Amino acid sequence: MIGLLLPPLIAALLALLTHRQRGAPARGFRFAWTGVVVAAFATELVLYNPPIDRTHFALTYGPWIWTITRTALLLAVLRNLRLAGNWSIPCAIMAVGLGLNTMVILANDGYMPQSTSAAYAVWGPDAMNVVADPGRLHNTRPMDGSDKLTWLGDVLPQPAWLPRANVVSVGDVILSLGMAAYVFASLKSLRPARQNRDPGPIPHVQLRKDVLDVGLDRLHRDDQLRGNLAIRQAAGDQPRNIAFPFTQRVEI
């Protein structure tokens, strides 16, 4: 699992290191049907872990439930192929990977066939003990002559230096690369929104004639007519009289 998450993590690091801030509204991650994705992963997490993984229900219906969750993930990614009028190449790559895995699982009754030689390369003599427990639900099974599409099964051993190395499929690799491309593109598209910035001076605006007609022939102060208005600009300044012509038309 860690090996499949490594490309997206590297992509995220590269995107953050090369990210240049710009003064545009932030876009962020845009992915429709996130609830479907969360529900699918949550179902798999419960199904393949104690105590559910040893129940009769899980052993009987678990493979088909896993097929349904894989199909749901594929549909969610396909939904995002064209979002807000834009085509997503990363989602197309992820769809190919998920599609290949789902096709293999459907063809093999809800299991992913796993190469015994690849498993031995990763886990050594303990390889058979990993999948030999018949009382526990597994999403893989040792590959034999009855399996279909075996070249798309778990046939690729991950390097031993990876933490928790596993055996993965071609679809897993493509899915991981698609996730990396999606993370990179999404992080590169982030733009910090402008916050609390002074808009600066308002540029000169010309309005049509007769938009504003102000009559200054009467300025009221203390209920008396005045032609001049005393304005004090700041504390301690002497008041200045500004004369306003009477009944002058002001055009802005």
Main sheet summary = 2 strands, antiparallel
The fraction of residues in strands falls at 5-15%
Gyration radius over CA? 34 Å
The percent range for helix content is 40-55%
Uncertain segments of ≥5 residues (pLDDT<50)? 211-235, 244-250
Structural class: alpha+beta
Q: What is the strand arrangement across the widest sheet?
A: 1-2
Number of strands: 10
Task: Report the principal-axis shape.
Answer: globular
Which quaternary structure do these chains form?
single chain
How do the helices and strands follow one another from N- to C-terminus? HHHEEHEHHEEEHEEEE
**Whole-number average pLDDT?**
79
Our measurement of the CA-to-CA distance between the termini, rounded to an integer number of angstroms, reads 68 Å
Separate helix tally: 7
Question: What's the structural domain tally?
Answer: 2
Structure description:
The chain is of the alpha+beta class and 252 residues long. It has two domains: 2-188, no CATH class; 205-252, no CATH class. Helices cover 42% and strands 12% of the residues. It has seven helices and ten strands. The strands form five sheets. It has a two-stranded antiparallel ribbon. A hairpin with a 2-residue loop joins strand 1 and strand 2. Helix 1 packs parallel to helix 7, helix 2 (34-47) runs antiparallel to helix 3 and helix 4 packs antiparallel against helix 7. The longest helix is centred in the first third of the chain and has 24 residues, at 56-79. It is globular. The protein starts with a helix and ends in a 9-residue tail after the last strand.
